[in-house]
Amino acid sequence: MSTPTLTASPTTELTKNRQGKVWLIGAGPGDPDLLTVKAARQLQRCTIWLVDDLAGQAILELASPQTRIIHVGKRGGCVSTSQQFILRLMARYARQGHAVARLKGGDPFIFGRGGEEMIWLTQRGILVEAISGITAGLAVGSALGLPLTHRGCSRGVVLVTAHTADGSQPCWEALAASGLSVVCYMGMSNIDELTHTLLAAGFTADLPVAVVQNVSSAAQRQLTTTLSELAQKVKAHDLGSPSVIVLGRVVGLAQHASLDLDQVSALALAV
């Protein structure tokens, strides 16, 4: 993917003398029907769209013929548009008077850098507002018929990332002891190391685990297994990013579980 360049955009009568604004909009996990009504309405009003790779093509088809769509892909391990360049684009077009949509997969404030962008723009006097989207870690529940919380099984759910810029990690030991459902983003690049880390932290080898790639989209693929077999099964089924990994007894309640039903029911109810 080629990196876009900053080019002059003539100020039209539509935008002249109007204060611009940036909208950080969550596109949801993949299914265009999961785009919120508020997001769809605001997208229709925006004249510039800066679009992440994870925003589906069906959502881009909502754009009017006058909309300028600029792809600013950011994917781990792939050629990506720099964050500084994206910030400068947002500022440039907002100062020209445009309504700018920064369209992100999932939710802008859940592993989407929405907080960083809001702070950066606000510090420069640029109006900015966020519109929530459904993040993949929550959409995975309905995608698999899997309740992320369930009475007598899990009293809560936590969303974490296995990959950070500084190499820091969640406190896996505390999460293992909590009994909560854990939804892990960005854990596929080194699934062997992640599995070893989780086992060493106290997650049990027989803990049910679900891995779902391209949650809710037409390309969705999933498997359910146990933690001890996680890395092996992921490789055998050639699953990759973008995926979420769900750890917890609730996985045994999934409607699409591939484990033996008697086995997972016993695991889920044994809490």
TrEMBL record:
Its EC number is 2.1.1.107. Pathway: Porphyrin-containing compound metabolism; siroheme biosynthesis; precorrin-2 from uroporphyrinogen III: step 1/1. GO terms for molecular function: uroporphyrin-III C-methyltransferase activity. Keywords: Methyltransferase, Porphyrin biosynthesis, S-adenosyl-L-methionine, Transferase. InterPro entries: 4pyrrol_Mease (IPR000878), 4pyrrol_Methylase_sf (IPR035996), 4pyrrole_Mease_sub1 (IPR014777), 4pyrrole_Mease_sub2 (IPR014776), CobA/CysG_C (IPR006366), Siro_Cobalamin_biosynth (IPR050161), Uropor_MeTrfase_CS (IPR003043). One of its GO terms (biological process) is methylation. The keyword Cytoplasm does not apply. Residues 21-231 form the Tetrapyrrole methylase domain. It comes from the Bacteria. It is an enzyme of class 2 (transferase). Pfam families: TP_methylase. Belongs to the precorrin methyltransferase family. This is uroporphyrinogen-III C-methyltransferase. The gene is cobA.
